[in-house]
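Q: Convert this sequence to structure tokens.
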Amino acid sequence: MKIIHLTASYKPAYIYGGPIQSVAKLCEAATKIIDESKEKGNFDLQVLTTTANGDQELNVSPGKPVLIDGVSVTYFKRLTKDHSHFSPQLLRELKNILQAVKEKNIVHIHGWWNLVSVLSCWVVKWYNIPVVLSPRGMLTAYTQNNRNSFAKRILHYFIGKRLLQYCHIHATSDQEKDDIQKIINPKSITVIPNLVNFQASAASSKTMNFDNDPAVFRLIFLSRIEEKKGLELLFEALSLLNINWQLTVAGSGKKEYVDYLKIKASDFNISRHINWIGQVENKDKYRIIAQHDLLVLTSFNENFANVVIESLSVGTPVLISDQVGLSDYVTSQKLGWVTTLNVNAIKETLLIAFSQKEKREMIKASAPEIIRKDFNDDVLANRYLELYKQLI
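A:
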């Protein structure tokens, strides 16, 4: 069986956030299982991707397969930048692979609304090969009506809709599944959570420069800084609090939007409470999260949100919006607080989280073990491999 993963970007293009981590983690865990199984030799997993790295290109040799943490990855040059990623060389290589071996192939495409995903899906459909599509949050009412909405509607009407009906959809949460089914009726839809890194691969001595006042409620936002993350709502809610709080904003985004948020913080008179630390390296991330009392994510839409699992893996409770895919999980496991996207609701939920110090301590003690059990790499990777076998 040849398993081909197609994605517009792959690590080390960490600028694209959580999906980079999830796709790579899946490929690494599946490759490990294949290598250690009795069926080694009957499986061949490879990744086709582009050199995309935001406005820049990755420093790699295009067209030559390389091993990235045990996974065979081939990067191809792109002719267009974000968010189209047009790469004729990638499409040509995909066609050559499918022509060479037409039986027992399966293609897993990650993401949508880019020319790697859409055109690759068209090529695979032409050869009548099964397609698993992980939209990665790209098939929701929010994303359809947000950025480049007119172009998306045109693409969906003329090409996308028929391609999506050919696919077996993979959703990362029940919420994402519900969102997808409002837009398209695929061949099938299966819910399997993301694989998530729990700990940094290297030790780090980086720490935050906090004072030692235990009365300070230390909050952290760690994600790509963009409109859908709801930071404006969070800032307004924080401006209404009468407690001693500090917010760390970790992540990068377009300079114009980050500058706009800093102006908003000034308008709300909360600038002195916010520490902007920029992009955080993986080796520093977990230590920094663990130094805070609460991770906050008041997003308008998140199909999953890896950072929620990352935070809980080091015992830091979470406060998230009900539009985050993991909100049901957080509620059922009692690992944090869930709020609606209303400023007063966010404010009140923050105050509840602040007042329930005993609950935060209980989460700190119990969450790491719960996360390691519920998001075990081998268990989840085997579910993906079983899905591939069933579809073939």
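The chain has a mean pLDDT of 92.
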